[in-house]
Amino acid sequence: MDYTDLNSCVENYNELTNEFKELENANKEYLTKLEELGELQSKCVREISHQRYRLDIITKSLRKFKLKPEEKADAKKLRDDIEKRHHHLCEMEHCLPKPNGTYLKIILGNVNVSILNKNDKFKYKDEYEKFKVYLSVIGFALSVINLSTNFRCVFSDSWIAKYTVIDNWVKSRPCFASQARLTVLELLFMFLLVWYYCTLTIRESILKVNGSKIKGWWRAHHFISTVVSGVLLIWPNSTTWYHFRPQFMVFNVYISFVQFLQFKYQQGVLYRLKALGERHNMDITIEGFHSWMWRGLSFLLPFLYAGYLFQLYNAYTLYTLINHPDTSWQIPVLAALFFTLFLGNTVTTSVVIREKFREKYGAYIYDYSCNRSHKRHKSDETGQQKSD
User: Fold this and answer.
1) What CA–CA distance (Å, rounded) separates 384 from 93?
2) Helix, strand or coil for residue 4?
3) How confident is the model over 111-147, as pLDDT tens digits?
4) Nearest-CA neighbor of 124 among 196, 41, 34, 211?
5) Fewer CB within 10 Å: N-end or C-end of the chain?
6) What is the pLDDT of residue 248?
7) Among residues 324, 289, 317, 321, which one has the least CA distance to residue 305?
8) Cβ atoms of residues 322 and 335 within 8 Å
9) pLDDT score for 208
């Protein structure tokens, strides 16, 4: 809206001046509150550390004492209270800024990545989940395109000879246009993998600072996958690469499909468990299998183990290429990395399944064995009475 004369402009400017004074007061109050907030945060962090220090001393002292029978009940109550206090301290920490881990310090420095608002935390977590789903779909599409481009080039002329003697095909280079397109698509896909896993590790580290409980092997899995992607990116175009390329693209098609399947189903199960209060609000979907997935997602296990076996097959294929005349250092490194991924994924998932079986059937087996031993004991007593 334009003003028609000078008086209107002056009048509106005076109104703005009054509003600006209010803004200045609000800004001063904001800065004061912000300073107070920083002081309160520092005080809370110090007090939490002090509480933990004193609680640890009390806990250690309780272990050293030789308690009298009448003191055991009080000691148990004290231990329970200490455990509850630790839980309350953890809840308090969720609303306080936390220091970055080593990885984030290397990548971002000492920038504070703590998200103090709960809604903002959930939004960031949801964006992380969407990021994984979208990139899985894009990765699937690029893998299929790379695979189809490779087959079109290989089978363009006398496909039987070129498929059975792939070394001759690589050396003869019969389709230069297809080769150029193939190389561009390869590089695009490899860059996507490197960027995806690098971004994933950073986002997961930020989520961990903000209370997410992803840990252990599944974080290490993404770091190893980042290294795998980087080594694949710098693997030169050679006979060995074109041996491995179709298999690797099929592997990516399968893995992208399984990841998409996991993310979609895990989101539903996590939402239900969070609504029931059985999971933390900052829990996220993962590539592998976790204990909370036992109910409703056990049907994914065959797909997961098939993917792990595919990783082992990749390692084996690369191992057979080590003695190839056109070999390079990337081949043994990738063979070791794929085998590490296979081993870590298989062991971690198997341990989770074993624990769930113990948890689910342990009590039943224990009761069954107790009943058997009780019956055996009774039969022994009966036999002894008869002999007497």
Assistant:
1) 65
2) coil
3) 888 888 777 887 887 788 888 888 988 999 998 888 8
4) 211
5) N
6) 93
7) 289
8) yes
9) 85
Q: What is the pLDDT of residues 20-38, one digit of tens each?
A: 999 999 999 999 998 998 8
Encode 128-142: b = buried (16+ Cβ within 10 Å), e = exposed. Answer: beeebbebbeebbeb
CA distance 96 to 110: 16
Contacts (Cβ under 8 Å, ≥6 apart) of 251? 310, 311, 314
What is the distance in angstroms between the CA of the first residue and the CA of the last residue of the chain? 114
**Residue 57 neighbours by CB under 8 Å, 6+ apart:** none
Are the C-beta atoms of 283 and 274 separated by less than 8 Å?
Answer: yes
Residue 1, token pair as written in the block = 């809206």
Token pair listed for 189? 């896909």
Q: Is 214 helix (H, G, I), strand (E, B) or coil?
A: coil
Cα separation of 266 and 271, whole Å?
Answer: 8
CB 288 within 8 A of CB 348: yes
- pLDDT means per 10 residues, the chain with 388 residues, are 76 89 93 90 91 91 82 86 89 82 85 82 81 89 84 44 42 47 80 93 87 79 94 90 91 89 68 51 49 56 90 95 91 96 91 74 51 54 53
Contact 229, 197 (CB under 8 A): yes
- Distance of alpha carbon 158 from alpha carbon 306, whole angstroms: 33
* Helical H segments across 239-329, by residue range: 239-275, 294-297, 301-320
Lookup: tokens for 236: 């030169």
Q: Which two tokens stand for residue 308?
A: 């792990």
Q: Could you tell me if 231 and 333 are in contact, meaning their C-beta atoms sit under 8 angstroms apart?
A: yes
